[in-house]
Amino acid sequence: MEIKAIAGDIVKIETGAIIVNYFEDAKQPEGDAAAVDAAMSGVISQLVKQGDIKGKLNEITLLHSLGKLPSSRVVVTGLGKKTELTLDKVRGAVGETCRYLRQKGVDRIASGLQGAGVNGIKAEDSAQAITEGAILGLYAFRRHMTKKDNSYIEVKEFTVAGQNKKTTTEAAARAKAIAEAVNWARDMVNEPSNFMYPADLANAAKKTADDYGLKIEVLEKQQMASLGMGALLGVAQGSQQPPRFIIMTYKGKASDAIDMALVGKGITFDTGGISLKPSTDMHEMKTDMAGAASVIAALRVIAQLKPAINVIAIAPATENMPSGTAQKPGDVVKAMNGKTIEVLNTDAEGRLILADALSYARKMKAKNIIDIATLTGAVRAALGTFCTGVFTNNQALVDKLIASGKEVGERAWQFPMFEEYGEMIKSDIADIQNTGAKYAGAITAAKFLSEFVDDTPWVHMDIAGTSDTDKDKGYLVKGATGNPVRTLVNLVLKMAKE
Ligand code: BES
Ligand code: MN
Ligand code: ZN
After folding, report:
1. Based on the domain organization, do 220 and 161 belong to the same domain?
2. Do 317 and 353 sit in the same domain of this protein?
3. Are the beta carbons of 74 and 43 closer than 8 angstroms?
4. Is the Cβ atom of 288 under 6 angstroms away from ligand 1?
5. How many domains does the chain have?
6. Same domain for 163 and 222?
7. Catalytic positions, please?
8. Could you tell me if 122 and 235 lie in one domain?
9. Nearest-CA neighbor of 244 among 269, 271, 217?
């Protein structure tokens, strides 16, 4: 989809449809909606009076301009109450509206700066959110469909109209870099596991590194063995597919010190291993590399926006399969940092591959570490699908991360890390074991990971609830969400400014 940014009046644009808005607590059409109302003999005012337009959030009213405007159609989108408006609601309303228009066969869409000036929303932030909403909301994963679907068309062009050409253009470009990378992360996560083996994930990362000028190194099994990555190799040994260990480097300033290491779980399929999962919903486990996809995609955006900071992405990638060579419950493995682990449940594999990836980040002397993982069903039980669980050994870092997420509409909630939870993963025969007890499964998993970062400031994000969604809503489309790429990018941009 081509993104155009212009300065000027939305009602003068020749296109398939223009988007204007109406607030629940408004008395009459305002801004662009008022201009449309005037040009179209008061139709919006009339519909408001009749109660057809109420302004409820995501309410969509389609009007045909019948030659009274250069655009064939106008959509009046409800934005809810002014006092409750957020940037994320704007992003969602535009996403929803664009999907509606696509379904009507409209392939050129334009929007003014929805919500700008309301509740402190700045013009350039609105321009960015609108563009992101359009690109994210129109996402579709169709590459395995062989039949042409006549109800589906590609939207060719989205125009954002602001007051200031320069800032609108910059905001739209930023939005495009971010949203297209999120959609690319969604593609990788939605891809069936037989199209996304560890080698495929590594190849995708390599291609991106080439395209965007990042350094990349991909370790194979032998190199992992020489580094002592026994925990990762223990998981990989059940699979016919060789594992990969992906390291991407972005250098944004002169020093060589790594300011931030983003570590993503890359299980390309999680059967559970010998501790086999039930077959119901097992197909969902093709998304168990969402953490890896998010860190790789975040680096792609960072390479484009070029903040003055050094960031690496680390993605350990393997399948978790049951087989004659698979590791068995009760086996003991040794991680790269020398700690021994009793593998009581082979389905708690994410923390095993992360043990080595975190040890690696530590060995690289990263100043901060954030890991992202679809780690536990327990976090989904606790928080549902609306926010990510976060865990830390450093309050300042997690505060910054939560604030960065809030700004982009990706919510996170912090869990406690009391000592007692750590006692739950003490092993009788090794340094630690890879499962806790019946309760607090998300926290005992985080406690396990904390054993591999020592005193480096670290946050663990458990995205098992937020990495995919079961329905279209706002700018989210059924399937992978691409969460938390936008949070990570925002955090890194902020840290670069400090
Ligand atoms: N990949 C799963 C966690 C998961 C569950 C992600 C549901 C997305 C949706 C993880 O590897 C896993 O199997 N975790 C186990 C841990 C348990 C064996 C301690 C779990 O949560 O049941
Ligand atoms: Mn598992
Ligand atoms: Zn898993």
Report:
1. no
2. yes
3. no
4. yes
5. 2
6. no
7. 277, 351
8. no
9. 217
Domain-located, residue 472 = yes
Q: Is 348 a pocket residue for ligand 1 (Cβ < 6 Å)?
A: yes
pLDDT along the chain (498 residues), means of 10: 96 97 97 97 98 98 97 98 98 98 97 97 98 98 91 94 97 98 99 98 98 98 98 99 99 98 99 98 98 99 98 99 98 99 99 99 98 98 98 98 98 98 98 97 99 98 98 98 99 98
CA separation for the pair 283, 466 (Å, rounded):
17
Q: Is 319 in the pocket of ligand 1 (CB under 6 A)?
A: no
In a domain, 128, yes or no: yes
Q: What distance in angstroms lies between residue 230's CA and the mean position of ligand 1's atoms?
A: 21
Consecutive H or E run containing 128 = helix 123-137
pLDDT of residue 222: 98
Answer yes or no: is the C-beta of 349 below 6 A from any ligand 1 atom.
yes
For 405, the domain range is: 191-497
Query: For the domain that residue 471 is a member of, what is the CATH number?
Result: 3.40.630.10
Q: What string of H, E and C letters represents the secondary structure of 36-64? A: HHHHCCCHHHHHHHHCCCCCCCCCEEEEE
- The best mutation among 275, 347, 388, 483 to test binding of ligand 1, ranked by most ligand atoms within 8 Å of the C-beta, falls on 347
Does 223 share its domain with 316? yes
List of residues 6+ apart from 138 with CB closer than 8 A:
1, 95, 98, 99, 102, 155
Same domain, 322 and 375: yes
Burial 192-207 (b: 16+ CB within 10 A, else e): ebeebbbbbbbebbbe
Question: What's the rounded Cα separation, in Å, for the pair 367 and 259?
Answer: 5
Final residue before a domain boundary, out of 137, 168, 199: 168
Same domain? For 114 and 235 the reply is no
Query: The domain spanning residue 136 has which CATH number?
Result: 3.40.220.10
